[in-house]
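Hypothesis: this fold can be encoded by more than one sequence.
Test: take the C-alpha coordinates below, design a sequence, compare later.
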Protein backbone atom coordinates (compact mmCIF):
# COMPACT_ATOMS: atom_id res chain seq x y z
CA UNK A 1 0.00 0.00 0.00
CA UNK A 2 1.13 3.52 -0.65
CA UNK A 3 0.61 6.32 1.88
CA UNK A 4 -1.14 8.79 -0.44
CA UNK A 5 -3.49 6.14 -1.81
CA UNK A 6 -4.33 5.00 1.74
CA UNK A 7 -5.14 8.58 2.82
CA UNK A 8 -7.30 9.13 -0.28
CA UNK A 9 -9.25 5.89 0.23
CA UNK A 10 -9.54 6.52 3.99
CA UNK A 11 -10.97 9.98 3.36
CA UNK A 12 -13.24 8.53 0.67
CA UNK A 13 -14.54 5.95 3.14
CA UNK A 14 -15.17 8.62 5.78
CA UNK A 15 -17.00 10.96 3.42
CA UNK A 16 -19.12 8.37 1.65
CA UNK A 17 -19.97 6.29 4.74
CA UNK A 18 -22.33 9.03 5.84
CA UNK A 19 -23.07 11.08 2.72
CA UNK A 20 -25.88 9.44 0.70
CA UNK A 21 -23.64 8.36 -2.17
CA UNK A 22 -22.59 4.82 -1.07
CA UNK A 23 -19.23 4.17 0.59
CA UNK A 24 -18.98 0.61 -0.73
CA UNK A 25 -19.62 1.74 -4.28
CA UNK A 26 -17.07 4.53 -4.11
CA UNK A 27 -14.44 2.27 -2.54
CA UNK A 28 -14.90 -0.27 -5.35
CA UNK A 29 -14.60 2.45 -7.98
CA UNK A 30 -11.79 4.26 -6.12
CA UNK A 31 -9.78 1.08 -5.80
CA UNK A 32 -10.21 0.46 -9.52
CA UNK A 33 -9.12 3.99 -10.47
CA UNK A 34 -6.15 4.00 -8.09
CA UNK A 35 -5.15 0.43 -8.95
CA UNK A 36 -5.44 -0.26 -5.23
CA UNK A 37 -7.48 -3.45 -5.18
CA UNK A 38 -5.17 -5.16 -2.69
CA UNK A 39 -5.54 -2.73 0.21
CA UNK A 40 -6.05 -5.71 2.51
CA UNK A 41 -8.36 -6.73 5.33
CA UNK A 42 -6.53 -4.69 7.98
CA UNK A 43 -6.99 -1.47 6.02
CA UNK A 44 -10.70 -2.17 5.55
CA UNK A 45 -11.23 -2.89 9.26
CA UNK A 46 -9.35 0.18 10.48
CA UNK A 47 -10.93 2.71 8.11
CA UNK A 48 -14.33 1.45 9.25
CA UNK A 49 -13.15 1.93 12.82
CA UNK A 50 -12.23 5.51 11.89
CA UNK A 51 -15.78 6.23 10.74
CA UNK A 52 -17.07 4.64 13.95
CA UNK A 53 -14.98 7.09 15.98
CA UNK A 54 -16.32 10.06 14.00
CA UNK A 55 -20.00 9.24 14.55
CA UNK A 56 -19.39 8.61 18.26
CA UNK A 57 -17.75 12.05 18.60
CA UNK A 58 -20.55 13.92 16.82
CA UNK A 59 -23.32 12.19 18.80
CA UNK A 60 -21.48 11.82 22.09
CA UNK A 61 -24.23 13.55 24.12
CA UNK A 62 -27.01 11.41 22.64
CA UNK A 63 -24.97 8.24 23.12
CA UNK A 64 -24.22 9.11 26.76
CA UNK A 65 -27.95 9.60 27.37
CA UNK A 66 -28.80 6.35 25.60
CA UNK A 67 -26.31 4.46 27.75
CA UNK A 68 -27.64 6.04 30.96
CA UNK A 69 -31.33 5.65 30.08
CA UNK A 70 -31.79 1.88 30.82
CA UNK A 71 -30.24 2.22 34.27
CA UNK A 72 -32.37 5.27 35.06
CA UNK A 73 -35.52 3.45 33.93
CA UNK A 74 -34.68 0.39 36.04
CA UNK A 75 -34.18 2.62 39.09
CA UNK A 76 -37.41 4.50 38.37
CA UNK A 77 -35.54 7.82 38.07
CA UNK A 78 -35.90 8.51 34.37
CA UNK A 79 -37.18 11.93 33.32
CA UNK A 80 -38.92 12.53 29.98
CA UNK A 81 -35.61 12.97 28.13
CA UNK A 82 -34.17 9.69 29.42
CA UNK A 83 -37.44 7.89 28.66
CA UNK A 84 -37.14 9.22 25.11
CA UNK A 85 -33.60 7.89 24.79
CA UNK A 86 -34.62 4.56 26.35
CA UNK A 87 -37.15 4.17 23.53
CA UNK A 88 -34.38 5.00 21.05
CA UNK A 89 -32.30 2.19 22.58
CA UNK A 90 -35.14 -0.19 21.76
CA UNK A 91 -35.61 1.22 18.26
CA UNK A 92 -31.88 0.90 17.49
CA UNK A 93 -31.92 -2.76 18.55
CA UNK A 94 -34.99 -3.44 16.40
CA UNK A 95 -33.52 -1.57 13.40
CA UNK A 96 -30.26 -3.51 13.66
CA UNK A 97 -31.87 -6.97 13.48
CA UNK A 98 -32.23 -7.11 9.65
CA UNK A 99 -28.57 -6.14 9.15
CA UNK A 100 -27.51 -8.82 11.66
CA UNK A 101 -29.46 -11.44 9.72
CA UNK A 102 -27.95 -10.38 6.41
CA UNK A 103 -24.44 -10.20 7.88
CA UNK A 104 -24.65 -13.67 9.42
CA UNK A 105 -26.41 -15.57 6.65
CA UNK A 106 -25.74 -13.74 3.37
CA UNK A 107 -22.26 -12.25 3.89
CA UNK A 108 -20.43 -14.83 1.75
CA UNK A 109 -23.05 -14.62 -1.02
CA UNK A 110 -22.86 -10.84 -1.25
CA UNK A 111 -19.06 -10.48 -1.13
CA UNK A 112 -18.77 -11.62 -4.73
CA UNK A 113 -20.95 -8.71 -5.85
CA UNK A 114 -18.17 -6.23 -5.02
CA UNK A 115 -16.27 -7.35 -8.10
CA UNK A 116 -19.22 -6.43 -10.33
CA UNK A 117 -18.63 -2.80 -11.35
CA UNK A 118 -21.75 -2.79 -13.54
CA UNK A 119 -23.89 -3.66 -10.51
CA UNK A 120 -22.25 -0.83 -8.55
CA UNK A 121 -23.29 1.67 -11.23
CA UNK A 122 -26.86 0.31 -11.28
CA UNK A 123 -27.16 0.60 -7.50
CA UNK A 124 -25.65 4.11 -7.60
CA UNK A 125 -28.32 5.02 -10.15
CA UNK A 126 -31.01 3.73 -7.77
CA UNK A 127 -29.45 5.79 -4.96
CA UNK A 128 -29.60 8.82 -7.22
CA UNK A 129 -33.27 8.26 -7.97
CA UNK A 130 -34.36 7.99 -4.33
CA UNK A 131 -32.34 11.06 -3.36
CA UNK A 132 -33.88 13.19 -6.11
CA UNK A 133 -37.34 12.19 -4.85
CA UNK A 134 -36.76 13.34 -1.25
CA UNK A 135 -37.81 17.01 -1.69
CA UNK A 136 -41.26 15.81 -2.76
CA UNK A 137 -41.85 13.65 0.33
CA UNK A 138 -44.31 15.39 2.61
CA UNK A 139 -43.16 15.70 6.22
CA UNK A 140 -45.95 14.54 8.55
CA UNK A 141 -43.97 14.55 11.83
CA UNK A 142 -44.82 10.89 12.41
CA UNK A 143 -43.16 9.51 15.53
CA UNK A 144 -40.63 6.69 15.46
CA UNK A 145 -41.89 3.36 16.76
CA UNK A 146 -40.80 -0.28 16.53
CA UNK A 147 -42.50 -1.12 13.18
CA UNK A 148 -41.06 2.02 11.54
CA UNK A 149 -37.64 1.35 13.05
CA UNK A 150 -37.78 -2.18 11.62
CA UNK A 151 -38.60 -0.88 8.13
CA UNK A 152 -35.72 1.61 8.34
CA UNK A 153 -33.52 -1.29 9.47
CA UNK A 154 -34.59 -3.31 6.42
CA UNK A 155 -33.47 -0.41 4.24
CA UNK A 156 -30.11 -0.50 6.00
CA UNK A 157 -29.80 -4.23 5.39
CA UNK A 158 -30.51 -3.74 1.67
CA UNK A 159 -27.54 -1.38 1.50
CA UNK A 160 -25.23 -4.39 1.69
CA UNK A 161 -25.37 -4.18 -2.12
CA UNK A 162 -22.39 -2.08 -3.27
CA UNK A 163 -23.56 1.23 -4.67
CA UNK A 164 -26.79 1.42 -2.65
CA UNK A 165 -26.24 4.09 0.00
CA UNK A 166 -26.91 3.06 3.61
CA UNK A 167 -27.59 6.58 4.83
CA UNK A 168 -29.55 7.46 1.69
CA UNK A 169 -31.74 4.35 1.91
CA UNK A 170 -32.50 4.75 5.61
CA UNK A 171 -33.19 8.49 5.46
CA UNK A 172 -35.39 8.05 2.38
CA UNK A 173 -37.36 5.25 4.06
CA UNK A 174 -37.88 7.30 7.23
CA UNK A 175 -39.03 10.32 5.23
CA UNK A 176 -41.32 8.09 3.14
CA UNK A 177 -42.91 6.93 6.41
CA UNK A 178 -43.49 10.57 7.38
CA UNK A 179 -40.82 10.88 10.10
CA UNK A 180 -39.21 14.31 10.52
CA UNK A 181 -36.19 14.36 8.20
CA UNK A 182 -33.69 15.62 10.83
CA UNK A 183 -34.94 13.05 13.35
CA UNK A 184 -34.56 10.19 10.88
CA UNK A 185 -31.11 11.46 9.86
CA UNK A 186 -29.91 11.40 13.46
CA UNK A 187 -31.46 7.97 13.91
CA UNK A 188 -29.73 6.78 10.74
CA UNK A 189 -26.33 7.97 11.94
CA UNK A 190 -26.72 6.43 15.40
CA UNK A 191 -28.00 3.13 13.99
CA UNK A 192 -24.86 2.99 11.86
CA UNK A 193 -22.81 2.42 15.04
CA UNK A 194 -23.87 -1.22 15.67
CA UNK A 195 -23.76 -1.87 11.90
CA UNK A 196 -20.19 -0.60 11.56
CA UNK A 197 -19.14 -2.21 14.84
CA UNK A 198 -20.64 -5.52 13.70
CA UNK A 199 -18.71 -5.36 10.42
CA UNK A 200 -15.48 -4.67 12.33
CA UNK A 201 -16.11 -7.55 14.75
CA UNK A 202 -16.96 -9.99 11.93
CA UNK A 203 -13.70 -9.16 10.18
CA UNK A 204 -11.58 -9.08 13.35
CA UNK A 205 -11.26 -12.87 13.57
CA UNK A 206 -9.74 -13.00 10.09
CA UNK A 207 -7.58 -10.00 10.98
CA UNK A 208 -6.20 -11.76 14.07
CA UNK A 209 -5.43 -14.83 11.97
CA UNK A 210 -3.62 -12.66 9.41
CA UNK A 211 -2.26 -9.61 11.26
CA UNK A 212 -0.78 -6.75 9.21
CA UNK A 213 2.96 -6.41 8.84
CA UNK A 214 4.62 -3.84 11.10
CA UNK A 215 5.84 -1.73 8.20
CA UNK A 216 2.27 -1.25 6.97
CA UNK A 217 0.84 -0.01 10.29
CA UNK A 218 1.78 3.63 9.64
CA UNK A 219 -0.01 3.58 6.29
CA UNK A 220 -3.06 1.89 7.83
CA UNK A 221 -3.04 4.44 10.67
CA UNK A 222 -2.94 7.33 8.19
CA UNK A 223 -5.97 5.91 6.36
CA UNK A 224 -7.80 5.47 9.68
CA UNK A 225 -7.20 9.07 10.77
CA UNK A 226 -8.26 10.32 7.33
CA UNK A 227 -11.51 8.32 7.53
CA UNK A 228 -12.28 9.66 11.03
CA UNK A 229 -11.69 13.31 10.07
CA UNK A 230 -13.61 13.00 6.80
CA UNK A 231 -16.45 11.18 8.55
CA UNK A 232 -16.83 13.96 11.13
CA UNK A 233 -17.12 16.62 8.44
CA UNK A 234 -19.45 14.45 6.33
CA UNK A 235 -21.92 14.06 9.22
CA UNK A 236 -21.98 17.78 10.04
CA UNK A 237 -22.36 18.63 6.34
CA UNK A 238 -25.22 16.20 5.81
CA UNK A 239 -27.13 17.39 8.88
CA UNK A 240 -26.93 20.93 7.51
CA UNK A 241 -28.06 19.80 4.05
CA UNK A 242 -31.00 17.87 5.53
CA UNK A 243 -32.16 20.90 7.53
CA UNK A 244 -32.38 22.79 4.23
CA UNK A 245 -34.04 19.80 2.47
CA UNK A 246 -31.44 19.74 -0.32
CA UNK A 247 -30.68 16.01 -0.54
CA UNK A 248 -31.51 16.00 -4.24
CA UNK A 249 -28.06 17.41 -5.06
CA UNK A 250 -26.50 14.15 -3.87
CA UNK A 251 -28.99 12.40 -6.14
CA UNK A 252 -27.87 14.43 -9.15
CA UNK A 253 -24.26 13.50 -8.39
CA UNK A 254 -25.08 9.78 -8.14
CA UNK A 255 -27.12 9.86 -11.35
CA UNK A 256 -24.29 11.61 -13.20
CA UNK A 257 -21.64 9.22 -11.87
CA UNK A 258 -23.77 6.12 -12.53
CA UNK A 259 -24.79 7.22 -16.03
CA UNK A 260 -21.21 8.07 -17.00
CA UNK A 261 -19.94 4.78 -15.61
CA UNK A 262 -22.64 2.73 -17.29
CA UNK A 263 -21.99 4.35 -20.66
CA UNK A 264 -18.25 3.86 -20.32
CA UNK A 265 -18.63 0.22 -19.24
CA UNK A 266 -21.11 -0.64 -21.99
CA UNK A 267 -19.24 1.04 -24.85
CA UNK A 268 -15.63 0.45 -23.80
CA UNK A 269 -16.04 -3.32 -23.96
Amino acid sequence: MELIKAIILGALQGLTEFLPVSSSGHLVLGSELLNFQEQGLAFDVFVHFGTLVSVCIVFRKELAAMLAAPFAVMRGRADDDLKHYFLWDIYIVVATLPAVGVGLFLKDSVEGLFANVLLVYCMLFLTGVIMTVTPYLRERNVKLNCPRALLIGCAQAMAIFPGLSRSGSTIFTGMLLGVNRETVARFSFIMSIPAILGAVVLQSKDLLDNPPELNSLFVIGAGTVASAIAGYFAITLLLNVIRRNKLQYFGYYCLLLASSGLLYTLFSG
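The mean pLDDT is 85. The chain has one domain: 3-268.
Hypothesis status: open.
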